[in-house]
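cache lookup: miss for this entity combination. No prior model stored, computing from scratch. Input as submitted by user K.M.:
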Amino acid sequence: MTQQSTKTEREDGTGQVPGFVSDYLLYLLAAASDAASAQFHAKVRKAGLRVPEWRVLACLADTDGAMITQLAKRALAEQSRLTRIIAQMEDRGLLVRRSDPADGRRVRVYLTDSGRALAAELVPQAQKHEAALMEMLHGNRGAQLKPALKSLLAALETQEDRQG
Amino acid sequence: MTQQSTKTEREDGTGQVPGFVSDYLLYLLAAASDAASAQFHAKVRKAGLRVPEWRVLACLADTDGAMITQLAKRALAEQSRLTRIIAQMEDRGLLVRRSDPADGRRVRVYLTDSGRALAAELVPQAQKHEAALMEMLHGNRGAQLKPALKSLLAALETQEDRQG
DNA sequence: ACAAACAATATGAAATTTCATATAGTTTCG
DNA sequence: CGAAACTATATGAAATTTCATATTGTTTGT
């Protein structure tokens, strides 16, 4: 029996209780996402961006000229929120919006040189941070993490598609 | 440039590009967390709770009488935000706050009968939903997901501890 | 070609979140 | 003991987010 304390609670910060939450998949996902992102997100903020802005930047670095709706999905933000984030980023000169000549409802978003420069600075930092994380998981089950997550995402997308 | 497709874009909703983001661990974690939670969080809202409130409820179902700070960590919310969420939940009669007799700075939070009843309704629903998710991943790499996430969390906590 | 249905983005207004800091209680140590 | 340092929670004020819906543009069916 390692710790059958009669104390009311543990003093280890997270309040390590066995319970439901600690083994609940949605908690593990959210907590892991939070914890894993924390350090890098601090760098993002030092670079003058908030997290959703960084996400937009990264998405655009991958796919310049994306539509608002696509960006919202990819950057995990609700559409009206994304519209305003894009507006702010445009004000700061990181990107420009142009309506799609082929379909006037669509607004396409393009990085400016300044935005591209910022992306060129942050993406490698993100990759470096990711490498450090993977390194940290070495020997453990790190190698299985990404494939498992992709698998989950794929399954969920399939499900979504079936449901409309 | 890497992108030699002549098409302006893909039409599959997520804008499936190879790119950086799609294979980036922090994106996979955040996206998986989001997507996996979506359905259940809809149920939570139908039960009249917002997501952070549900988290608080679940945490308290595990560890009644937790402190604000502990709850904030566990429910993945910033302290001042949690304070206000707790206040709202108290107004709704889901929980009560009592200051710790042993240390007057601490506020301990206890579920009321009403709160406990709600938890007793939602926790099994969460478990059922989780089971469905795990089921969905069957044959895939589902079995490895939780251990991998726990491993990541453990590694990150260790790291945090080292850094203070 | 027209109206209805649909799709993409924008926006007002209320609610929430954040950030910095205030407040209150506790521990440390000279 | 008493002051300084610290810890836990609360709060004001600005900024952001959400929700519902408006606006604008496109497609479909007749």
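stored under new cache key. Chain A is about 60% helix and 5% strand.
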